[in-house]
Specification:
Vanadium-containing Chloroperoxidase, domain 1; disordered C terminus; two-stranded antiparallel ribbon; mainly alpha; globular; about 60% helix
């Protein structure tokens, strides 16, 4: 894209508002279920289905979970800076403190549910596959999922065509990896992913995103 690229603040764009409302609804629904501290039978079944996948997937799943580490937005921001996408740089840097605040100071203060090793297996390591992850500790929501989905949402408007789906695919695999490794219950990553999308949308609406290429151009005088 050229250096004179046009940017918009999509406060009134219908698709942004719909995505904002949908992600907020997912967060609320996931939080309501998790707030009991219990893991419903259907969620346990999903956990065991993913967690019980073959062991040869452990190395690739371990790699995909790295997409949710806190330094990832900073790394992507460096790449964005190389291409002089300064609004994207700002958005990615904002994502890190916002993630920590929302996850630690809001969600985990309101919803207390333990990791699968405790909430599903009650400390019995034979009931699941816990691949070098903690058995205890607050599990809702997944901070890894917040980061992976937040980055995917922020970079989406900047990528052309099918390239938009690459970070989305990484975010999906990151969420699956956290369940596969035994670190989170399924709704932990669903809720975390929805928060990541929500934060990405809000940040994008605040700092601005590239105008759509198919948007009508102003009439020439």
């Amino acid at each position: 894209m050229s250096h004179d690229e046009q940017y918009v603040h999509p406060w009134n764009q219908r698709d942004w508002l719909l995505a904002l409302g949908a992600s907020a609804l997912v967060v609320v629904l996931a939080a309501v279920v998790a707030s009991t501290g219990e893991v419903p039978g259907w969620e346990q079944a999903i956990f065991h289905g993913i967690n019980g996948l073959p062991d040869f997937l452990e190395k690739p799943m371990w790699l995909f979970q790295l997409a949710g580490l806190l330094f990832v937005p900073a790394g992507v921001a460096v790449v964005a800076a190389v291409f002089r996408k300064w609004r994207l740089v700002l958005g990615l840097l904002l994502l890190m403190p916002l993630k920590l605040f929302v996850e630690k100071q809001i969600v985990k203060q309101l919803v207390e549910r333990q990791r699968p090793g405790t909430s599903i297996c009650a400390g019995d390591t034979s009931c699941g596959h816990f691949r070098d992850v903690p058995m205890e500790g607050l599990s809702f929501v997944s901070g890894h999922a917040i980061i992976a989905w937040g980055v995917a949402t922020l970079v989406w408007p900047y990528l052309p065509g099918r390239w938009k789906w690459v970070p989305v695919g990484v975010a999906v695999l990151n969420s699956i990896a956290r369940v596969y490794l035994g670190a989170h219950n399924p709704l932990d990553v669903v809720g975390g992913g929805a928060i990541g999308v929500l934060l990405g949308l809000i940040i994008g609406m605040a700092v601005g995103v590239p105008a759509r290429r198919n948007a009508p151009e102003p009439a020439q005088s």
